[in-house]
Amino acid sequence: MSQAADAPARVAVIDDDRAIRFVLSRALAQPDLAVECFGEAEEALEALLACPPEVVVTDIRMPGIDGLALMARLHQTHPALPVIVMTAHSNLDSAVASYQGGAFEYLPKPFDVDDALALVRRAVAHVREQARPAVVPENLNDDIIGESPAMQDVFRAIGRLSQSHISVLLRGASGTGKERIARALHQHSPRAERPFIALNMAAIPRDLVESELFGHEKGAFTGATARRAGRFEQADGGTLLLDEIGDMPADTQTRLLRVLADGEFFRVGGHMPVKVDVRIIAATHQHLETLVEDGRFREDLFHRLNVIAIALPSLTQRWEDIPRLARHFLHAAASELETETKVLTAEVEALLGRLAWPGNVRQLENLCRWLTVMASGREVLLEDLPDELRTVDADAAPANGDWRTALRDWAAQTLAADDDQTLEQALPDVEEILMTAALEHTGGRKGEAAALLGWGRNTLTRKLKASRPDG
Ligand SMILES: Nc1ncnc2c1ncn2[C@@H]1O[C@H](COP(=O)(O)OP(=O)(O)OP(=O)(O)O)[C@@H](O)[C@H]1O
């Protein structure tokens, strides 16, 4: 299955419907793909087991062996083979059954041929990335804190991508460390010796975005008194982080798409193309799919950037890391302010683990700076915390709705009843509820559901399997 990164990827299509085979074989007739079609699963199995493709696209309901059984049989010997499951009977059950069977993605019929093509390419990129050794780069844990399972997933993704030049989309709420992770991706890439340039789309006035990105020639506009290199040129050979990509103006999106396709652009007011070799990392806290639906973000650009997406967990999803992060930030703040390092009492640490943290890691960092200045003694006590944090705990007012209080009461009652078995089942139950809601919301699209939950898709697949073992 592992093939040279530039060889066309073999894609097998299995469907008893001749029309679908025809449409897909046309759509997938691309220079980077080699398509083979089969009208029934038996025949396909024999051929594919003898010579496995890189991606399989299969219908579910077919005479003889059905698509899910075909997938199971292929996965026995080729567990990493991505299988895209198509079905006209699109409902949550078939989506869930496909994912539980280990499908890469689920494609409800009728589908848009461009979507099908994008999905196949995503599966190819995925399988080729998976073929790389999944090591967590050395030193990564030294400068980015993350022992929680959620952050370990992120580190593994950085490891897998460490030999790659592929575009990456970082998704995550504000303050979750997207810029930090973008730097780590750069530092652990073959481009580490070349520049890392970050540009925040939300922070530049709209009419300056193009000249900021692509530079300008002398006299291109009033005030352009000299030629100026843009960020693309500055990042040549290295990495360009386009932060808050969802705020990029429409015209610039079109230009960016062209640069990504051609590797060259014109400075504002220029007539000579400038050639660059830049790896793009895009970051967003917005749900880009919604921006696409609303016509505010180009769908083709979205697919181009979204080949590899890494979802950064919110701070509450990695509460295990809070004490270490706090110690790290207290230490950093003390060196910065040339004062002694404060220490949290166990009570304060426990409280920090229970807060909602809407501002994520950055909010914790700011709190640590504040405490370094404001706390009176070396030990930080509950009363040293800013009022708004203490009140949150004092009346247990849930930041995001009433369910936290309900859960807290339920846990207290369960423990009082000596029923510790029930407590153990609570987390999987909560996850199951959230997974079902997310899958329902996305019409069964696992990648998007995983993003909504702040997980990688592998995490969602694993948890789905664990929560519904006989599915
Ligand atoms: N895992 C981590 N370990 C140590 N420091 C971290 C970690 N994650 C984030 N930080 C620190 O938290 C702060 C916020 O991170 P960063 O600026 O990367 O977030 P962001 O997601 O890009 O935020 P925004 O979307 O608001 O721009 C930074 O000072 C960063 O160094």
UniProtKB/TrEMBL annotation:
One MF annotation (Gene Ontology) recorded for this entry: ATP binding
Subcellular location: Cytoplasm
Protein name: DNA-binding transcriptional regulator NtrC
Originating species: Vreelandella subglaciescola
Principal localisation: cytoplasm
GO cellular component: cytoplasm
Domain Sigma-54 factor interaction: 144-373
GO biological process, one term: regulation of DNA-templated transcription
Function: Member of the two-component regulatory system NtrB/NtrC, which controls expression of the nitrogen-regulated (ntr) genes in response to nitrogen limitation. Phosphorylated NtrC binds directly to DNA and stimulates the formation of open promoter-sigma54-RNA polymerase complexes.
Key words, A-Z: Activator, ATP-binding, Cytoplasm, DNA-binding, Nitrogen fixation, Nucleotide-binding, Phosphoprotein, Repressor, Transcription, Transcription regulation, Two-component regulatory system
Residue ranges of every copy of the Response regulatory domain listed in the record: 10-124
Positions carrying 4-aspartylphosphate: 59
UniProt entry tagged with the keyword Transcription: yes
InterPro entries: AAA+_ATPase (IPR003593), AAA_lid_NorR (IPR058031), CheY-like_superfamily (IPR011006), Homeodomain-like_sf (IPR009057), HTH_Fis (IPR002197), P-loop_NTPase (IPR027417), Sig_transdc_resp-reg_receiver (IPR001789), Sigma_54_int (IPR002078)
Alphabetized PROSITE patterns for the sequence: RESPONSE_REGULATORY, SIGMA54_INTERACT_2, SIGMA54_INTERACT_3, SIGMA54_INTERACT_4
Name of encoding gene: ntrC
KW Membrane (keyword) present: no
SUPFAM superfamilies per UniProt: CheY-like (SSF52172), Homeodomain-like (SSF46689), P-loop containing nucleoside triphosphate hydrolases (SSF52540)
Any Pfam family: AAA_lid_14
Superkingdom as given in the UniProt entry: Bacteria
